[in-house]
Design brief:
Layout lengths: L3 E6 L8 H17 L1 E8 L4 E8 L2 E10 L8 H13 L5 E5 L12 H4 L2 E5 L3 H6 L6 H14 L2 E4 L2 H9 L5 E3 L17 E5 L5 H13 L9 E5 L7 E2 L2 E3 L15 E4 L10 H7 L3 E5 L1 H5 L9 E4 L2 H11 L3 H17 L2 H12 L2
Parallel strand pairs: 1-2, 1-5, 5-6, 6-7, 7-8, 9-10, 9-13, 10-12, 13-14, 14-15
Antiparallel strand pairs: 2-3, 3-4, 11-12
Length: about 350
C-alpha cells in the first residue's frame, strides 16, 4: 500500500465549521483504509510543523516535526511549507493536502512534489474572497488555478467546481461528498420554526443569513421562528430570531421534518450542512444552484429548491401548513442520507488513490 501523509493547517484541529467537518470526514475515511494516519500540521503563528497520529478514532500528538527560527518576513509561511515537503517527500508516496493554505507554493516547489499531491479542495477562494474584495480576485484566481493544475488530483464536495477542474483546468478531479455516519430518526417536527445551520465564522453562512434576514424574512409569516445554530450565531437575537451558538447535540434542535434553510445563492461555499440536514430527515429549502453543487438534491423530492426570494419565503410559509408534504420530503431525505455512507466513500477513495 502506498505510504500517505496528511497535510493540514493547525486551525482544522479545533474547527467545528465546514472545513473542520470535511477534515474529520476525510480522516475517518483514510483511517478505514490505512489503520492509522500520519498528520503534519502547519502552525504559522509559532512557525512550526507539528506531527500527529490518528488511530482508532483518536488523535495523538507526536512532536514538533520542524521549527523555523529564521525568516520573520511575509515569505516565512512559504518556506515553512516547502522545507516540510522536502523533508517528507522521500518518506511518503502520497500527500493528502487539506485546503489551499496547506499547499506548497507553485513558484518555489519542484514538480515532482506536486505529482504526489491529492488536493482536498474546499471552495474556490477567489470566489469567496471576491464577494468581499473584488480587487484581489484576479490575482488569487491565477495563483489558485495554477497551483491546482500541478497536483496529481483534486477532490471536492462541490460538483460544479470539480467539473470546472476537469473541463477547464484539465486536472483529474473527483466529486467526493462527505459521508453520513449515522441517521437520526426522531418524532416528526410539526413546529412553526426554521433552522439555519452554519458557523458565522464562514462567509457562506454569515452572508447567506444576512441575505435571508434582509430580503426573505420580511415575507415569512410572523408566526414562524428562526433558530440559528453555529459558532457566532448566539450574537444574533431579535424578534422571531434566536441564536444558540455552537451546540454539542444537534438532535436537540433537528428532527424529522424540521425546515432547514440554506439561503446562499452562489455556486460555492457548500459542503457539509446539507448532509447534516439530510441525516436528521430535515426538509431543506434553498436556491436551485444548490442542486448543481450537490446533485444528490432533487427539487420536490428530497428538498425544496427555488429561484427567487419571494419563492423562498413562500416555500417556508407553505411547508409549515403542509405536514404531509414535509413528511414525504423528509422520508426521501433519509433515503438519500443512507446512500451517502462510509463504506461507499472508502471504496471511492481507494479508487482515487489507486490502491
Amino acid at each position: 500500500m502506498k505510504k500517505l501523509a496528511y497535510i493540514i493547517t493547525s486551525d482544522f484541529l479545533e474547527n467545528n465549521a465546514g472545513g473542520g467537518q470535511v477534515f474529520r470526514n476525510n480522516l475517518k475515511t483514510l483511517e478505514a483504509i490505512y489503520g492509522q494516519v500520519n498528520i503534519y500540521s502547519f502552525n504559522f503563528y509559532k512557525k512550526e510543523v507539528n506531527s500527529f497520529v490518528f488511530k482508532e478514532g483518536n488523535l495523538y500528538q507526536g512532536e514538533i516535526f520542524f521549527k523555523m527560527n529564521f525568516l520573520s518576513s511575509k515569505y516565512q509561511n512559504l518556506f515553512l511549507k516547502l522545507i516540510c515537503y522536502l523533508k517528507l517527500v522521500y518518506k511518503y508516496e502520497i500527500f493528502w493536502v487539506e485546503h489551499f493554505y496547506a499547499l506548497p507554493s507553485y513558484k518555489l516547489t519542484p514538480k515532482f512534489i506536486f505529482k504526489k499531491i491529492i488536493y482536498s479542495q474546499h471552495d474556490f477562494l477567489y470566489k469567496i474572497k471576491g464577494l468581499k474584495d473584488n480587487k484581489s480576485k484576479n490575482k488569487l484566481y491565477e495563483e489558485e488555478t495554477t497551483t491546482i493544475t500541478k497536483c496529481k488530483a483534486v477532490i471536492g464536495g462541490n460538483k460544479l467546481e470539480i467539473d470546472f477542474c476537469n473541463e477547464i483546468l484539465k486536472t483529474k478531479a473527483y466529486y467526493l461528498p462527505i459521508s453520513i455516519e449515522k441517521i437520526f430518526i426522531s418524532n416528526f417536527d410539526n413546529s412553526k420554526r426554521v433552522v439555519h445551520l452554519g458557523s458565522f465564522n464562514t462567509t457562506a453562512s454569515k452572508l447567506g443569513f444576512e441575505h435571508f434576514y434582509k430580503t426573505i424574512l420580511p415575507f415569512v409569516s410572523n408566526e414562524i421562528n428562526v433558530e440559528l445554530i453555529g459558532q457566532g450565531t448566539c450574537e444574533v437575537s431579535s424578534l422571531n430570531v434566536k441564536g444558540f451558538g455552537f451546540v454539542e447535540k444537534l438532535s436537540n434542535y433537528l428532527k424529522k421534518g424540521t425546515i432547514s434553510i440554506i439561503p446562499w445563492k452562489y455556486d460555492t461555499g457548500q459542503r457539509t450542512r446539507v448532509f447534516e440536514s439530510l441525516s436528521y430527515g430535515c426538509v431543506i429549502v434553498s436556491y436551485s444552484v444548490l442542486g448543481k453543487i450537490i446533485p444528490e438534491l432533487i427539487n420536490n423530492v428530497n428538498c425544496i429548491l427555488v429561484e427567487t426570494e419571494m419563492e423562498f419565503a413562500q416555500a417556508i410559509n407553505n411547508l409549515v401548513l403542509d405536514n404531509e408534504r414535509r413528511n414525504k420530503i423528509s422520508e426521501q431525505a433519509i433515503i438519500t442520507a443512507r446512500e451517502l455512507n462510509d463504506s461507499k466513500r472508502v471504496e471511492r477513495v481507494k479508487e482515487i488513490l489507486e490502491l
